[in-house]
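Re: flavin-adenine dinucleotide structure - here you go.
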Amino acid sequence: MLVSGKEKLERMRDGRVVYVGSEKVTDVTTHPAFRHAAQSVADLYDRKADPAKRDVFSYEENGEHFSIYWLRCRNRDDLARRTRGLKAIADGTYGLIGRTPDHVAGMVTGLAMKPEVLEELGAGRGRNLMAYYEYARKNDIYLAFACVPPTGIRSPDMFPGQERKDPTLRVVDEDADGVTISGMKMLATGAVFADEVWIGNLIPLDEKYKKEGITCAVPMNAPGVSLWARQSYEQPVRNEADYPLSYRFDETDSVLVCDRVKVPWERVFLHDNGAMSRTIYIKTPANCYANHQSNVRFWAKMGLVVGLASRICQANGVDRIPGVRETLGRLAALEATIGGLVQGQIEAWEAFPEGWACYNRRHMYAALNWCQEHHTEIIDTLRTLVGGAALQMPASIDVLADPALRERFGDWWATPSMEALKRMKLYKLVWDLIGSEFAGRHMLYEKFYAGNSIIVRNQSDREAPWDRFHGIVDDLLEGIEVPDYGAAEPGH
Ligand SMILES: Cc1cc2nc3c(=O)[nH]c(=O)nc-3n(C[C@H](O)[C@H](O)[C@H](O)COP(=O)(O)OP(=O)(O)OC[C@H]3O[C@@H](n4cnc5c(N)ncnc54)[C@H](O)[C@@H]3O)c2cc1C
């Protein structure tokens, strides 16, 4: 089933509770903090449901069409096809919405390629996961996730003697029908627009906190669930042309708060297990499928960055200066690098788990690390190219409402290469990527969406073939000739 944009908007009006400060919002599709981003999500669903684009955005199984991101790949061609769909989705928002529906769906799809991992940890849990996978793809469910305990109380052992109430989400009760969960979890990006939220753990958890290991899915409108949203960047914008990205693509980050939320057993996938609550994503393609989407999204964003950099240089009249061309060439090379890192994951695909196909995990983690390391520098390069021009633009496009100001603006703000209004639109756009609050949030997002750098690099450390690397060194050492002076003895 492929849901239309209209149906998607309808689903967002399900009685969910979202707090913007003290204000309780019950319809995100009309509220000024969320309505345009909600429409961007709906537009994505319309593109996906378009019969003319079926081969890009969906696949068929037993006569039914499902969104492409639910595809469990069997071979290289499946992976390439899946990635093509992810790229089309990411291009639709210029890579500026990180948690489009394909991200968490990738995680669930990866789990559904090896449900035995869950089944071994609790009878029936693997079966629950498969039933959920079928339900989610059949109903084109948009899942967000909240998988990190709140900052500041993650290591209570570090503060001996300082007892404090720990609000980390955990199981507080259970009975024949299911578990009851209470507490908070961060940081559910996109959740205000999603249908359900996946609760779990993406950072290692000590076994003694096993009640926090709970891994389950909860509808956004479940009794006791609320989302505490950060400040909206869309809300203060009066004209789209002033902050065009904040206006349309603020996906919103929220803290998930659960107050005695009942979760039926059918929606519980892991219970009473701290140590394995992160490992399940690594022993299956879940982590790889989800983060491959992040790599593809970054690639889409790079297209926007490079195009903007070039247009800005044209507008500034510096695009033919050799030193500037070198910088543009470097940015273009970086865009091609991430493209290559994405394609490489397909070409070097792995038969993992048996019978299925996974993107090359080492290449995927390398790309994740590359993006995390380079985003700040890339945006700073763009900022440097822009110079002060963005701040020469009037505060708002409404300057055009005054005939005298409009005339002066049209005459004096134009350059030989560009008329005034076009310049203003361009500089307002680039400011939203390098200087606005929306831009600042993106700087943070690209640093942390997959965990801090320690977590991200740990993935590459874990997957590295250290035996092979050691073998290279050991073979080389073996071949080095040493004159026969006799064996070195300890103590001499
Ligand atoms: C915009 C945004 C969107 C997000 N969206 C989601 C989402 O949709 N779902 C979700 O589950 N999570 C999401 N996250 C949360 C994200 O997973 C966490 O922010 C991330 O795991 C990092 O945790 P933290 O912010 O508490 O930083 P920390 O882990 O506390 O790290 C902050 C800094 O502390 C230092 N540090 C921490 N630990 C160590 C150590 N052991 N050794 C040395 N230095 C250390 C490092 O300098 C590190 O950069 C999002 C985060 C952001 C910023």
